[in-house]
Design brief:
The complex is a heterodimer of chains A (942) and B (370). With 942 residues, chain A is α+β, with helices and mostly antiparallel strands. Chain A contains 31 helices and 33 strands. Helix content of chain A is 35%, strand content 20%. In chain A, strands 14-13-10-11-12-15-16 form a seven-stranded antiparallel sheet, with helices on both faces. A seven-stranded antiparallel sheet of chain A has the order 31-30-27-28-29-32-33. The model of chain A has no long low-confidence stretch (mean pLDDT 92). Chain B has two domains: 10-153, Glucose Oxidase, domain 1; 163-369, Rossmann fold (3-Layer(aba) Sandwich). Chain B is 26% helix and 31% strand. The longest helix of chain B has 17 residues, at 235-251. Chain B is globular, with a radius of gyration of 21 Å. The chains are: A alpha+beta (942), B alpha/beta (370). Chains A and B meet through strand 11, helix 9, helix 16 and helix 17 of A and helix 3 and strand 15 of B.
Chain lengths: 942, 370
């Protein structure tokens, strides 16, 4: 069936601010949906309150509404735009729940708006656990025994029916398993059932028998209006049942299923998808398989594009959201070509000839006191994906991608082999279990012993054991004695030069990673780049999507165009999320528009920057020195852009400089200098610009002396951190002592500063772009919360609302003088504290910041693009820089405290929010202003 | 070629001179054959034992092979049919509750020679661009040139009658599962076990005849219908064996069903042309559209020859199924007699079960004619 011509204008609902369980994957899906609809000639109307999304950029839709995701907003938009259809499957659970609410009210029907991409009755079935259960029984799909409870009494009865604890709790209609978990004790049961009942919007929880330790699988499906169904990707969880799939290390395709069992999963998935109403689009089905007898049970089905679909898209190359959108408007799969090959059909099941490993990224360090064991409620804030030709290669690359200071799965100098600690961390599902398995192997544990404790499939354990065997083999060698073949074998298994250097150092002299690299290069041991093509090489493909490995043939063809490499921001984490990917995408577009070949390097599967049709070339690789340099060595770009990817990319700057690689924009010395808070304050002194009194310290004693000099409360600030990591306010000596101890443990290598904390000061964030002559004011934002609350956690208002003209002109004066003195070319963000008429500089960031996308949306002006183009040589006068902002725009942060019930909500200099939304207001009576204003001091803590 | 081990224990030499250096797996020795690739990510054991692959060197595009071991019930025939195995990464340690041996043990039991640790993707792209060609895997200490010469000398698949090597030597009977409703004569050119299972599950009791069984034997058993199996080699070479039974079945109005080689044999018997393909279809993800329902099936395929689409086809048959990737003919229903045939493998194994309804269609034909 060709596309529908009875609809012309389609409303897409976005997913709103980033929260745990719902991250930038919905910018990826929304962006693909917009592109997909517009290329078919439909008008697209979009609602999303998240300003840091590409989907809300003016080029993506015909009308964009940056409004709260509420029924009221939808009604207002519908009134104005009169769309013919609504597509609610691209914005996660948020969009689906919103559309469902309106559906249940009969709103869509009343307004004569077609709901496309999903069958709303089907949503009821999949979300209402009892209905779903009944349906599965009808079609003969086995499930865990379970029943829904609406009270604690119900729950207790059901537990008895199921034969006692442990059991699993799953609240109905919550996101990312919120409120769910495994219950081991009677105490826990009471607490968790009550919490689940509260969190469920329909006050229902499912009490389910526990199949902890079973193997867990996911299939990603597409279905069209003719009822054709294809499986795009199969995913196996390395962590068995009991850990939320978002918190699990996962691998694609499945590794440990024989064909007969895999086909049973496939048959069941297709049957399930066909059973839940009639709709055309994407869907995800989860299964558990008994490791003893391969009994299969269905866990759940999500009739929408999900986090796993983003992963599956990046893992296979198949653009699920784009195709799902085409199916929603009436196309059938057989009518669409495979966009990767162009020569084959989109109606097929990708075959891959590599292994993909996804590893979740956690941020427990931000939430002291949080329960770090993993369970059925998702706790990860982001994820990294790695591609290798083998599981071991991909696993090592995944650890290199995580940006937690590790150079692979162990063997990188952080050896902590306390058998008791290892065994403890194996028994309980902690985030680093793959590493602990490696440690256990290193300590001599057998595959069986580890399997017994962890319930990991022995295949995964034995693969990790292979890595340890290789480690042990290399340990006796030196840089001189290691043979070509041994080095090749290590590289083929994903070992980094850092790991190899560390292993070779064990035999004698300390070896540096550069020496390993040098040796490799002289022996011509350099990686090749292979294409992600959906078809395992069966058809020729032109997609410029590559990964590195150590094999024979290089498929990446170097062009003779001038190239710019843009470093992405890696896995999402608090303080570095979608805002940076937003800027990365604009950097790619800016570089393309300025005539360069834009080369993107990133490893976050949820992002728009890793869509194969964004950059001229995409390398899906860790933002890890060695991997980045391998690409640069091959591509020989004119330079790199590292000011848009957050701290990750910036950290590599020094080494680029040393290696003689050009960095676009502001000289690296100045970028680095701004991070060195000691040096930076000397610079401010020279400029005669005030800053809070401070002192630099290296020990507890230094810190106390300084604090006594400048007076409490003081702010403790480590250098080279993002999102205020480790920053604290101390009001007295013993607190200071405690915080400094922690910093010395986590950041022992740098000076840290003790600042006078300015009580009751107003904090101001000033983003700008400087081209050497002119300063473009991207925006001056006034925080509602007092200085001391991290800027990322503050409610910020633009334009400012209490600052005097005098203060504003001082701010502008300082900003320009700093920009000039630092020879800024491109972005400059400065944070100020304003007390009365006095303005103090807190810090300067000569890079794209978290607030750039917010400002771009507030002004309706391409701030990121302007900044990057200036970095690449453009002048500000070339741009139309008029702002379209009327009234005020507010940036409202969103916090994950609901996911961590054991953590107190308190705000301080260390960032804790996961995302933000934008809100436009006309006056200060608006509750979006009044509420935060009223509570502005409430949560300020340390 | 970069990143190639200096110490190797096995080599793969292609007839056009390309050589890969890797590590030996299975039993040592030298084996040759047509080098073809399969893109299935699961089901390696079923592929190794599929008689249609007789004499071929099999490249598995999925890099890890051996993960779930092997299990006697996954064999599609009594022996391994491929002549050599080419993979990226060999796994000895397996995980699977129903497995009874590791792949290493299996290869030893079945005397299979292989090579691992080579850039299989490069090899696949090479075949895709240059067309299928012969090759040799060897663990022996001979020169590269000698190996290439050996690959060149290896007989080409074109014109080869191979069913004689894989067919049964004597007819064999299989009861229907449950009540026997129909008697089906299966002509074994290299039939897969799962095909027999699928027929038996639908009330067919079977007698499986050797490829060159005299027509009299079949007539004597008096079947309700005739099934022509899959198998290896050039259908043009095997056609003479099938001609008498086809002629008899058509004349006697016995419903006919053919799969893969059987499909090609039925087409040949109606005067259609069957040609060797540049690169065959081998994998478990080929989209095929049923032209009457418009539904798409994801299918398992394994063929290096294909029925040519020309003016003659329409005179003798209706094209019922087409490949969505290249538009090639995947299914025919004939005009002058009750019979249809399918180029791919509706029994799957390995692969998706989307097409098993075709066995039901055959049973419907049997019902209609009885």
């Amino acid at each position: 069936m060709p596309k529908r011509d009875d609809i012309h204008k389609i409303l897409i609902i976005g997913s709103g601010p980033i929260v745990i369980g719902q991250a930038c994957e919905f910018d990826y899906s929304g962006t693909q949906a917009c592109k997909s609809l517009r290329e078919e000639g439909y008008e697209v109307v979009l609602i999303n309150s998240n300003p840091a999304t590409i989907m809300t950029d003016p080029m993506m839709a015909d009308a964009i509404y940056l409004q709260p995701l509420t029924p009221a907003s939808i009604k207002e938009i519908v009134e104005k735009e009169r769309p013919d259809a609504v597509l609610p499957t691209m914005g996660g659970q948020t969009a689906l729940n919103l559309a469902r609410e309106l559906y249940l009210d009969g709103y869509w029907e009343k307004e004569n708006i077609a709901v496309i991409g999903v069958d709303m009755d089907a949503v009821n079935i999949t979300e209402d656990r009892q209905l779903f259960r009944n349906l599965m029984e009808d079609i003969g799909i086995t499930q865990c025994r379970s029943r829904t409870a609406e009270s604690l009494l119900d729950a207790k009865e059901i537990v008895e029916e199921l034969g006692g604890l442990p059991i699993v709790i799953r609240p109905s209609f919550t996101l990312g398993g919120t409120g769910g978990g495994i219950v081991w004790t009677a105490d826990e049961l009471e607490r968790k059932v009550l919490r689940g009942l509260e969190l469920s919007p329909v006050h229902q929880v499912l009490i389910e028998e526990s199949i902890v330790g079973w193997k867990e699988y996911e299939l990603e499906l597409l279905r069209d209006a003719n009822d054709n169904v294809v499986i795009i990707c199969s995913i196996e969880n390395v962590d068995p049942m009991g850990v939320h799939t978002g918190d699990s290390v996962t691998v694609a395709p499945t590794q440990t299923l024989p064909d007969k069992t895999y086909q049973r999963l496939r048959d069941a998935a297709i049957k399930m998808m066909r059973s839940i109403g009639t709709f055309a689009g994407g869907c995800n089905v989860q299964f558990a398989v008994s490791p003893d007898n391969e009994t299969l049970v269905a866990i759940e089905i999500n009739p929408r594009v999900s986090r796993s679909s983003a992963l599956a898209s990046k893992a296979t190359g198949y653009p699920i959201a784009k195709i799902a959108t085409k199916l929603a408007i009436g196309y059938t799969l057989d009518e669409l070509p495979n966009p990767i090959t162009g020569v084959s059909s989109a109606c097929f099941e990708p075959s891959i000839d590599y292994v993909v490993v996804k590893s979740p990224r956690f941020n427990f360090d931000k939430f002291p006191g949080v329960d770090e064991t993993l369970s059925t409620q998702m706790k990860a804030v982001g994820e990294a994906m790695a591609i290798g030709r083998t599981f071991t290669e991909a696993l090592n690359k995944a650890w290199q991608s995580l940006e937690i200071g590790r150079a692979g799965l162990g063997a990188d100098g952080y050896e902590e082999l306390d058998p008791r600690e290892v065994s403890h961390r194996l028994k309980h599902p902690f985030w680093d279990r793959t590493l602990q398995i490696r440690n256990a192997c290193k300590l001599g544990a057998s595959v069986e012993e580890i399997q017994d404790i962890t319930k990991f499939d022995p295949w995964f354990i034995s693969q990790i054991q292979t890595l340890v065997t290789l480690e042990n083999k290399a340990e006796g060698k030196t840089l001189e004695t290691i043979t070509y073949d041994e080095l090749l074998e290590l590289k083929q298994h994903g070992f980094s030069d850092v790991q190899i250097a560390w292993l070779l150092s064990k035999g004698g002299d300390t070896v540096h990673e550069d020496q390993v690299r040098e040796k490799r290069k002289t022996q011509k041991l350099t990686p090749v780049f292979k294409m992600v093509d959906t078809c395992a090489g069966e058809f020729p493909a032109q997609t410029p999507y590559y990964y590195s490995t150590y094999e024979g043939e290089n498929e990446s063809v170097k062009t003779d165009r001038e190239k710019v490499v843009i470093l992405g921001s890696g896995p999402n984490r608090i303080g570095q999320g979608i805002e940076f990917d937003y800027s990365c995408v604009h950097a790619v577009l800016a570089a393309k528009e300025m005539g360069y070949e834009a080369i993107m390097i990133n490893c976050n599967p949820e992002t728009v920057s890793t869509d194969f049709d964004v950059a001229d070339k995409l390398y899906f690789e860790p933002i890890f020195w060695e991997r980045v340099m391998d690409i640069i060595d091959f591509e020989q770009p004119k330079g790199v852009i590292l000011q848009v990817g957050g701290q990750t990319a910036l950290k590599l700057g020094k080494r680029f400089k040393e290696a003689g690689i050009h960095i676009f924009g502001t000289e690296f010395e100045w970028i680095d200098f701004a991070e060195d808070r000691g040096e930076f304050t000397k610079f401010l002194t020279k400029l005669d610009i005030p800053f809070p009194k401070y002192g630099a310290a290296r020990s507890v004693e230094d810190a106390i002396t300084i604090a006594e000099e400048i007076g409490y409360p003081v702010l403790i600030r480590p250098s080279y951190v993002l999102g205020g990591q480790g920053m604290r306010i101390a009001v007295k000596e013993d607190e200071l002592r405690r915080y400094v101890d922690t910093i010395l443990k986590t950041h022992p290598e740098n000076d840290f500063l003790i600042d006078r904390y300015l009580e009751q000061a107003v904090e101001v964030d000033f983003d700008s772009v400087f081209d050497g002559e002119e300063l473009h004011e991207s925006g001056i934002m006034q925080h509602i919360e007092p200085a001391g609350v991290h800027s990322g956690d503050s409610t910020a208002v633009i334009p400012t609302y209490t600052l005097s003209d005098g203060v504003l002109s001082t701010l502008r004066d300082y900003q320009k003088r700093i920009a000039k003195a630092m020879n800024i070319v491109g972005f400059l963000n400065v944070q100020y504290a304003v007390k009365g008429e006095d303005v103090y500089v807190l810090e300067a960031n000569p890079r794209s910041t978290r607030t750039i996308p917010f400002l771009a949306k507030a002004h309706d002006r391409p701030e990121a693009m302007v900044g990057v183009k200036v970095m690449l040589g453009a002048k500000l006068k070339e741009f139309d820089l008029t702002s379209k902002l009327e009234g005020w725009a507010i940036k409202e942060p969103v916090f994950p405290f609901d996911k961590f019930p054991e953590v107190k909500k308190e705000l301080g200099p260390e960032m804790k929010s996961t995302g933000e939304s934008i809100y436009f207001m006309d006056n200060f009576e608006d509750e979006h202003f009044r509420k935060p204003y009223e509570f502005k001091n409430l949560y300020l803590s340390k | 070629m970069t990143n190639t081990p200096k110490q190797y224990s096995a080599r793969l030499a292609l007839s056009d001179g390309l050589i890969f250096y890797g590590h030996a797996i299975g039993v040592p020795g030298s084996v040759g054959g047509e080098c073809c690739f399969n893109t299935s990510m699961t089901g390696y054991q079923e592929i190794f034992t599929d008689p249609s692959y007789f004499g071929q060197l099999m490249v598995m595009t999925y890099p890890h092979i051996g993960n779930y071991g092997t299990s006697a019930e996954d064999d599609e025939a009594a022996k391994v049919m491929i002549s050599g195995l080419i993979i990226r990464s060999f796994t000895e340690r397996y995980s699977n509750p129903s497995a009874d041996a590791s792949l290493r043990e299996y290869m030893e039991t079945h005397q299979l020679t292989g090579i691992q640790g080579i850039d299989t993707r490069q090899l696949v792209k090479h075949i895709r661009e240059k067309g299928v060609m012969n090759a040799v895997i060897s663990t022996e200490n001979v020169s590269d040139e000698e190996l290439v010469a050996k690959a060149k000398e290896w007989p080409s698949m074109a014109g080869l009658e191979l069913s004689q090597h894989v067919t049964r030597t004597e007819a064999q009977s299989f009861p229907a599962e449950g009540e026997s409703v129909y008697k089906v004569a299966v002509m074994d050119y290299g039939v897969k076990k799962t095909i027999l299972d699928q027929l038996r599950a639908r009330g067919c009791s079977l007698r499986v005849f050797p490829a060159q069984a005299p027509l009299e034997d079949v007539k004597e058993w008096n079947p309700d219908g005739v099934f022509l199996s899959n198998g290896p080699g050039d259908p043009n070479a095997t056609a003479p064996f099938a001609a008498p039974i086809l002629e008899w079945a058509k004349k006697e109005s016995k419903p006919l069903f053919g799969i893969c080689l059987g499909h090609q044999l039925m087409a040949l018997s109606e005067g259609c042309a069957v040609d060797k393909m540049f690169v065959g279809h081998r994998g478990a993800n080929q989209p095929v559209q049923n032209l009457s329902t418009k539904l798409v099936e994801i299918t398992t395929q394994n063929h290096g020859f294909a029925v040519k689409e020309d003016a003659h086809i329409e005179k003798v048959a209706t094209v019922t199924h087409k490949n969505l990737n290249d538009g090639s003919i995947e299914g025919l229903r004939f005009k002058d007699f009750t019979g249809f045939c399918i180029q791919y493998h509706p029994e799957a194994s390995p692969g998706p079960h989307d097409s098993r309804y075709l066995f039901d269609e055959f049973v419907k034909d049997l019902a209609a004619s009885s």
